[in-house]
Amino acid sequence: MTIEKYDQILVAIKESKTIIIHRHKNPDPDALGSQGGLAEIIKASFPAKKVLKTGGSVGDLAYLTTMDEISDEDYQEALVIVADTANTPRISDERYKNGKKLVKIDHHPNDDAYGDIVLVNTNASSTSEIIADFCFYNKDELKMTDEAAKLLYAGIVGDTGRFLYPATTPKTMRIVADLMEFSFKPDEINRKMTAMSQKVAHLSGYVLQNIAIDPSGVGKVILTKAIMEQFGVTDAETSAIVSLPSSIEDIVLWGIFVEQSDGHYRCRLRSKGPIINEVAKKHDGGGHPLASGANAKDLVEVNEIIEQLIQVAEQR
Ligand SMILES: [Mn+2]
Fold first, then answer.
1. pLDDT tens digit sequence for 35-82
2. Cα–Cα distance, 258 to 280 (Å, whole number)
3. What is the model's pLDDT at position 288?
4. How far, in Å, from the CA of 159 to the mean position of ligand 1?
5. Are 287 and 274 found together in one domain?
6. Are residues 61 and 162 part of one domain?
């Protein structure tokens, strides 16, 4: 099944002069690693092709990859590949519809099977792992480069929490070993990915000090606009603190609720085992079974989400 898709995608790439690669909004290292890694592989393998990356701001991840300027005309005959994006509203540039053919490559549950070719492997740790596997599988025709290996390594490290999460498989480690044969500095990437600013360090202290833990093991942290202002951090910077509660032994699952400028709360939900994406889906969200995102219009809905998470924790 996956191999068939690999063949179809390689054919689609060979048939196209222009390939435009998209990813999800608010990119993480896997979104940029898979997007940038695939772009590097195609450029190195087929130098005559025009390969472009789109999606707007990369936040503080510009050390990984940056976007290209793309005109509407570029889409006319283009193959569009969307990496690491479960559903169409999250795609980083609306023009993804304007190409000649659309390919989805992802590892999230395939609830929105958009595209002419859909390659979804929920057993993969990350989309970067899928891209690396796709390249190594087609090694006679696709060329891995040092830069691509670095980007894909970063994506895998990001989505596996440095190989701590259960999505890390023996296959993940084999692919990582093959990537590490290329010339880049894994320790440098690891350090950049874990480095935090002083203000985020201080916010981390706040999160650990103020997390409320219910008897069933559900942790709750609310970051209001006032708290964000107090620490001088943006919503994007709060992504660094989402995994912090996992090291607290009594916590089974948790939510970090970040108030947005319009007063709604962006909810980042994580779990050590019980499945939480069904709760996320009920609140304008979705994602992985153990790592989901949602939106709550006010604190009343935040508390509804907490109640539903408590039910999930109690059922286990
Ligand atoms: Mn991912």
1. 999 999 999 999 999 999 999 999 889 999 999 999 999 999 999 999
2. 15
3. 84
4. 6
5. yes
6. yes
CATH number of the domain encompassing residue 279 = 3.10.310.30
Distance between Cα 30 and ligand 1 center (Å)? 5
176 and 267 share a domain? no
Alpha-carbon gap, residue 200 to 77, rounded angstroms: 44
Residue 287 binned pLDDT confidence (cut-offs 50, 70, 90) = confident
Q: What is the pLDDT of residues 175-204, one digit of tens each?
A: 999 999 999 999 999 999 988 899 999 999
- How many domains would you assign to the chain? 2
Domain of residue 232, residue span: 198-315
Residue 137 Cα to ligand 1 midpoint, Å, equals 20
User: In the chain, how many H helices and how many E strands?
Assistant: 10, 11
| Ligand 1: centre distance to CA 31 (Å) | 6
Looking from the CA of 188 toward its CB, the CA atoms found within 13 Å total 8
CATH code for position 23:
3.90.1640.10
Same domain, 131 and 216: no
Whether residues 175 and 215 fall in one domain: no
> 33 alpha carbon to ligand 1 midpoint, in Å?
9
Centre of ligand 1 from the C-alpha of residue 313, in Å: 25
Q: In what order do the strands lie in the sheet with 212-213?
A: 212-213, 218-223, 253-259, 265-271, 291-296, 286-287
Asked if 209 and 306 sit in the same domain, the reply is: yes
Cα 129 to ligand 1 centre (Å) = 9
